[in-house]
Specification:
Elements (H helix, E strand, L loop, with lengths): L5 E5 L6 H14 L3 E4 L8 H11 L4 E4 L2 E2 L5 H14 L6 E4 L4 H6 L7 H18 L5 E4 L3 H10 L2 E4 L10 H13 L7 E5 L14 H6 L5 H5 L9 H15 L1 E7 L3 H11 L1
Parallel strand pairs: 1-2, 1-9, 2-3, 4-5, 5-6, 6-7, 7-8, 8-9
Length: 272
């Protein structure tokens, strides 16, 4: 039986508490299930931002897409997450990643560990938080073998990108199969997530590719449009695309940027 869809709204910036809480209420009314905040210097701070969302809503889950695990000590992060969970009446979900922007580590006056060390620390953080927050679902986002192996073993949600790791015709199918093999008997209980990096604005059918191009600067427009994280067409056509992703890959959770709240709400309406 196919899993139900869930939809997340990523909030990176806000201008005031009133505007943030108004956005959160709109998301809740439009059928979004989760509000999540990324973890980058120069953007909104995840825990206080989500606390303000919690106090203005009643159903939205609260997550991060994703916390830079290497920025934190487990016990201190756990304390802040516990407060958010209490203030939201148990709506906490925890999103984790390795962190990857060297300049942010330098700005924070923190050492920039090797890739291997950051993955090791992600595993350490995941185990700690899983022990201390057993009721909070954990999402781990990444694309490499080691990160996805940790996600398959310990996480409840897995954030996939569909980016090419091996020379295969369908990179998303290859990554899902990798997770399936790493998860074993756990696989059927996992929720697979995809962050949508580009989609059309309301009333349009062609997406702005600027954000996607930032992460794939060497790809042509045609290659970017072929990415699974890029949607195009009408709300009905985008809904059909996501239904196809569920059928083909088992993807059921999709996260979009908050500037697309209006048009993606129409996609949600087509799917429910």
């Amino acid at each position: 039986m196919a899993k139900d869809f869930r939809f997340g709204l990523s909030v990176r910036f806000f201008k005031s508490r009133a505007k943030l809480q108004e956005l959160a209420k709109r998301a809740e009314d439009a059928g979004f299930d989760i509000v999540c905040v990324p973890d980058h210097l120069g953007a909104a701070a995840p825990i206080p931002t989500l606390t303000a969302v919690a106090l203005a809503t009643t159903k939205l889950k609260l997550s991060m897409y994703v916390l830079n695990a290497a920025f934190y000590k487990p016990a201190l992060l756990s304390r802040d997450l516990e407060a958010l969970d209490l203030l939201s009446d148990g709506r906490l979900e925890i999103g984790l990643g390795t962190g990857y922007v060297r300049e942010e580590f330098e700005a924070a006056e923190l050492p920039y560990p090797s890739a291997g060390a950051r993955v090791d620390y992600l595993e350490h953080m995941t185990k700690y938080l899983k022990e201390h927050h057993p009721k909070a679902p954990i999402l781990i986002a990444g694309n490499g073998d080691r990160v996805l192996t940790i996600a398959a073993r310990y996480a409840d949600l897995i954030g996939l990108t569909g980016s090419r790791v091996k020379d295969v015709a369908d990179p998303m199918a290859e990554r899902v199969e990798f997770v399936r093999n790493a998860a074993g008997d756990r696989f059927d209980s996992l929720e697979l997530n995809l962050a949508i990096t580009a989609m059309p604005a309301a009333g349009e059918s062609t997406p702005n590719l600027a954000l996607t191009r930032r992460y794939a600067p060497d790809l042509s427009d045609e290659e970017i449009m072929a990415q699974r994280s890029v949607l195009s067409g009408s709300p009905r056509e985008m809904a059909d695309t996501l239904s196809g992703y569920r059928e083909k890959y088992g993807l059921t959770c999709f996260t979009v940027q908050d500037n697309h709240i209006e048009n993606f709400a129409k996609v949600i309406a087509e799917l429910r």
